[in-house]
Design a protein that fits this description.
11 helices; alpha+beta; 9 strands; globular; four-stranded antiparallel sheet
Length: about 375
Amino acid sequence: MDFDLSKPQKLLKDAARDLLSRHCPPEKVRELMASETAHDDVLWQEIVDQGWTGITTPEEFGGLNLTTVELAVIAEEMGRACLPGAFMSGVFAGALIGEAGNEEQKKRYLEPLALGEINATVAFLEDDTAWNADSLSVCSKSDANGIILDGKKRFVADAGIADLIICAAQNGDGFMLLPVERDSPGLSITPSPSMDETRKIFDVDLASVHVESRNILGADGDAKGAFRRALNTATIAACAEMVGVMQWSLDATIEYVKTRQQFGKPIGVYQAVQHQCADMLLFTESSRSATYYAAWALSVNDPESALAVSTAKAYCSDAVREVCNRAVQLHGGIGFTWEHDLQLYYKRSKYSETLFGDAIYHREIIARSIVDQAI
């Protein structure tokens, strides 16, 4: 693998930073936090016009057909801008349709998603589940024309604006992926409180919601395997976004300690402060290395790619917490105030830390993999 981004990838990174600095400044983030959905049509159209909503989608379905590395490049800049809205949800849903859908389903769902004509999300978590396909309790029953869904999904990101919700469920036949359109009878969506108000989450209730047989994703293959592969792609995007959060927090802290005066000197001259900043840099750069290696491994279908993804997520989940904690500490009291933008990134770090599995969850995956290899 290359140890640096290629020239086109660097240009993509610069273009993303420029666009987001112009269209998603902190004032815009705060404005969208106060809304019900954290969605803005104008900002979203800018993202769509760049083709980012279909960055890894094949060209035949309206995408750019780029790799997971380019996805990570974009996601890092989105984290650096603390971008509100449904991009991450769309990445997960698009990867899931791409992995589990047949040609007709990709044409019906993936193409409009890549072109920004619809928004989509994935409903997986329940009251007592982790990101494990074997732990679901939402029931699905077969009838003559398809599947009937009953149950409740929790913490569904961006369901308030989603035109399509892909629900994971279990029945006697095993794990299922069921696309539910927004106007489906029996579907109700309720806002749920969240620490990170730039990422709105919802409860999704399913009361005898019917899904036609022709719409079931993965019905002709390995639905559980498709889910795991799509989850790996979404997890890389989350890791890259955390790297962006860490980079912003580091940059903001460096600028602050160079100007904040105490006893007639900038606090940055004190060794204790320098050590904290050095730790932040170490966490950030190590997270970036782990994330981009995992993104590369996914892009080339490396046999160890799933292990690399879990390694990156375990490290980034811990690192983003540590970096943001140190940023708040070095900013002092102002770091916790509403007026300072650091609180936006701190809240995003807490959301991202557990998204798609926290560090403990992914360390368990790594441990099982090591044991399996030893056996």
